[in-house]
Specification:
The complex is a heterodimer of chains A (about 260) and B (about 200). Chain A contains 2 helices and 19 strands. Chain A has about 260 residues and is mainly β. Chain A is about 5% helix and about 50% strand. In chain B, the strands form 2 sheets. A 4-stranded antiparallel sheet of chain B has the order 4-3-6-7, with no helix packed on it. In chain B, strands 1-2-5 form a 3-stranded antiparallel sheet, with no helix packed on it. In chain B, strand 3 and strand 4 form a beta hairpin. Chain B is built from 4 helices and 7 strands; from the N terminus they run H-H-E-E-E-E-E-E-E-H-H. Chain B has about 200 residues and is an alpha+beta fold. The N and C termini of chain B lie far apart (about 85 Å). Helix content of chain B is about 35%, strand content about 20%. Chains A and B meet through helix 1, strand 6 and strand 7 of A and strand 1, strand 7, helix 3 and helix 4 of B.
Chain lengths: ~260, ~200
Amino acid sequence: MQKTATLFFAFLLLGHIEAAAHFGMLIPDAPRITGENPATTLTLSFSHPFEQVGMDLSRPEKFTVTANGKTTNLLETLQPATILAHQGWQSSYTFNRPGVYHFVMEPAPYWEAAEDLSIIHYTKTIIPAFADDVGWDQPLGLPTEIVPLLRPFGNYAGNSFTGQVFLHGKPVAGAEVEVEFYHPGQHLEAPSDHHITQLIKADGQGIFTFTCPLPGWWGFAALNEADYTIKNPAGEEKGVEIGAVLWLYFDETPKIGR
Amino acid sequence: MSHPRITVPSLALLTALFLLISGGDCFAHKMRVFAWEEQDDIACEARFSGGRPARNVKVEVSDQRSGAILLTGETDDDGNFRFPTPIDHGGLLIVVAGSDGHQASWQLAAAPVAAASPLPATDQARLTTTPLDNSTPPVVVSEERLQRLISEAVAAELAPIKRALAENAESSPNLQDILGGIGYLLGLAGIIAYGRAQKKRKNP
């Protein structure tokens, strides 16, 4: 009997590895662009950011950059890459004008059998180039998106992010927003699963505020059920979770004295 | 750096008055400048944070190698300033300075030079326009063409890496997949064992 229980426990434990939240990820090497290095590599993946566990991201449907009122298609620049031991994508982008650059990835629907639905995470990362700071508060008109109310760059760990969740252009009252921390190459211990994926609910205007205590990338994913269905790989019509994901970088707080 | 330090009380009072009149945006707003090559000119734009043009501010252009001031001027009403690219310069330092203590600068790398003169460490490539072949006479390269050249060169350099990455994408099962697989097997065995144990208990 004891042996049985041990085996059962082992099953639970191993089965559990895949249980955390997944995030569309769009992470540039540089959180801001300066004259010293006017280019950055952008890494696209579908991962569990805190635990740094990868999943496969098939070729995205869209990959664009919007800056200074212009949207450019970057899909052709994507190169396959191995991210956290799984299929991901990379692109290099060279900046030649000041601006606030909104990079957006729309992945192909990901069929998640365990949840009996397909997942589409519209993933957005906003970085400034050459000290520009205009346009960070503009919605891009995505099917769903988080529009920042805190300027999404030039922040310290410990600053609070405020954002507004939109679905089809309308604020989502009471939207649930999952939050995860990503620090490439560094594995942190969380006291519990709840700490791995934190959760906040937006107010009646779809506005939420969350304090990010550590330096690095923080991902916010507002998840909603779409009002349409799509076919799963078996050809059955199934529901769709559409997520508005936003990634922000928080810098280390400068040391006083020295 | 760009904010004046206020030490004298009367100055503080004046400042407060000024802030009141100006709405305070002069002090809250940082100035920035950006410059790029456009045909035979260098174009500069000076802006305040928030995007307002820094109009009629002083511009000083100096040569980074010699330190000599090459020219001075003022931005126009749109915060723009333009000058012909100096011949054979050793890297340009463009400084814009407002009357209220705001200052910002931008550096441009040395112009294309035929002679193989070593560049000072400060001349880190912003918009490197050095021809690939030093034996050829200096060529004027438009920004578009330069970008194309760079991306071609980068693409050529990256090709083998990309290929390797693409090959890796078809990766064999990793440790987690294997552990997961074992987990499932153990789990199934566990369920069967549990079922049997229950049966045994019911009908000993």
